[in-house]
Amino acid sequence: MAREEVSEFFFRDEIECHGLDCCNHSYPISITLLKALDVFRAKVNEPVFLSCAFRCLKHNKSIGSTDTSQHPRGYAADVERLPTFTIDAMSAVAESIPEFSNGGIGLYKSFIHLDVRDLPARWDSR
Q1: pLDDT digits (tens, 9 = 90+) for 64-107
Q2: What is the pTM of this model?
Q3: Hey, CA dihedral for 70, 68, 122, 90, is it positive or negative?
Q4: Dihedral (C-alpha) 19, 20, 25, 27: value to the nearest 10 degrees?
Q5: Is the predicted pLDDT of residue 123 greater than 80, yes or no?
Q6: Cβ distance 16 to 25 under 8 Å?
Q7: What is the arithmetic mean of pLDDT over 43-60?
Q8: Helix/strand/coil for 24
Q9: Is residue 44 exposed (0-12), middle (13-18) or buried (19+ Cβ within 10 Å)?
């Protein structure tokens, strides 16, 4: 069965909820987020792997995330660290994309959180 493309560089199975026994892998993702992720992918010029994008509320709670998470809104994705980029270099690329520079960028040891919320938010959890 062919993978369902949802944007220039991403497929449904990458952005849908990965929870079990919750929402049947729904994926009400923001088109703004998808377009910004495509720009990010084009700028880094190498494959980008999402460890998480949309999470339904049930799945979000099951992993201990907060109710204020941008993932259940379809506004966030976690991008695994790229082999040729540091987390700081990935953050610099994200800052160059208006949707992310005006949204959320969170730094973690093995991934970067990117979201398209309506106001800037930054954190470093490394």
Answers
A1: 888 789 999 999 999 999 999 999 999 999 999 999 999 999 99
A2: 0.94
A3: negative
A4: -20
A5: yes
A6: yes
A7: 95
A8: coil
A9: middle
Only one residue has tokens 């959180």, namely 113
* 3-class DSSP assignment, residue 32: helix
3-state secondary structure of 110: coil
Query: What are the residues facing 111 on neighbouring strands?
Result: 80
109 burial via Cβ count (<10 Å: 0-12, 13-18, 19+): exposed
Q: Is 34 left (phi over 0), alpha (psi -120 to 50) or beta?
A: alpha
Query: What value does the CA radius of gyration of the chain take, rounded to a whole number of Å?
Result: 14
Compute the distance between CA of residue 15 and CA of residue 91 in angstroms, rounded to an integer: 20
Asked whether 91 and 112 are in contact (CB, 8 A), the reply is yes
